[in-house]
Every structure is written in C-alpha cells, then in structure tokens.
User: What shape does this take?
Amino acid sequence: MTKDNPYNFLPLQPTGRNETDTANTYAPEDMIKIYEQQFLIQVPEEELTGFLPALKAFYDIDNHTLDVSAVIFEAIADSSIIYNHKIKVGGYQLLGGLVEEVIEYDEDTQNDDSTDSEEIQAYTLECQRTFFINDVEIPYHFNLFIYGDGYSTLTKKETVLEKMYWFVRGRFEEELLDDSKDNDSLESINEQLASLGIAAMDLTTVDEIVSYIEGSIIDDAMVDELNKLLDDVE
Assistant: This one.
C-alpha cells in the first residue's frame, strides 16, 4: 500500500526495526535527511501542527528517532540548519597575489611600547569563499588585509550573501557607515533569494547566517596557504 505523502518526503529504505518493534531504524545518512526535512520543507502555517505527525507516520518513527537524528546531524553532518535554511561552507580561492602595503603610524601610535618602528609591513589579497544555502551555490568575495600578526576583511557588495552582510552591518553600525542607506533592504534581499529558489528570510535568520559566514570565511587550510605566500615574499 502506498503511503500518504502530502509533503513530498524523500523515500528512504529502513534498515530494520528498533528493539521494541515500535519504530523503523535508518542508516545515519538517512537519519540526517529525515532531520533536515523537519526544517527545510516549507509548510503553510495552518498545517504546521500536522506536519510532524505526518513525517513520523511516513517514516514510521517516534520522537526518540527524531532526537537521535538531531544528535547524528550535529556529529557528522557537514552543514548547519539555521531556522528553515541549510548552510554549508564550500571551498575558497585566493584571487591574484599579495599586494604590498605600508602602514604609517601616527604620533600617538608610535608612543605605544608595542610599536618598534614607524612602519609595519602589510598586504592585501582578494579572496573568495563559496557557500551553499539549501544546496544553492553562492560566492562570497572579500579583500583580506594582513598586518603583522593580525588581519581584517572587507566584504564586497555584489552577490546576495555579500549584500546580506552589509544589510546586517548597516543595521547595527548605521551611525558609523556613511553609505548604509545604499544597502539593499530585506525585501530586496528576499527577492534575490527567491530568484535562486531560496525561501525568504526574516531578520533573525539573516543575522544568524551572516554570523555563520563571518566565522567560516577563513579556515585552517586557507591560513596554511596564506602563511606559505607570506613566507615566499619575506
């Protein structure tokens, strides 16, 4: 008999039954798919109360199975769920080479005991990190400014992820950014997301995704390659 599937749940093959024969068991990778569908399937508000029972009935699972699927997702999944969006970090590119810069300290900085000279060597480098939102690939471009043992980034304003960054920053630092009024609105951002087949986001979701991006644009592999580049020019 064909199961009722009003929400187009993914067909998955059970591996068996649990010890008490009250629910199906599934492979870890399929448990992740079940977990993701709780958040990624768009459900009309008036149907929300019936969605989870329908999910459990379709896969013949119980609440314990859902709890275990959450643990498995946290342990082995290579992505994160932020409200009703899945985000994943992709690869990076270093575009071009290091551009040498020179920082000149003002008189106040020179009086700081931590400064041994009036100049410090610095470099800029154009970079790109790829992200996936609900499996849609979106690039994120930024300039990396390296000075001494520190660094900072300057995000461009071309792709929808980059515009999300400036939208969030403009909301929190409006008094510091002269051009914050030029940032895209949430409505405009959601229109761009819709053109990519990505569901609309509210303010909280945008804030969380930008926070995730900022914590992910530079990873250990990228740092290792940057250190090799710096070694080559020194």
In short: The longest strand covers residues 85-104.
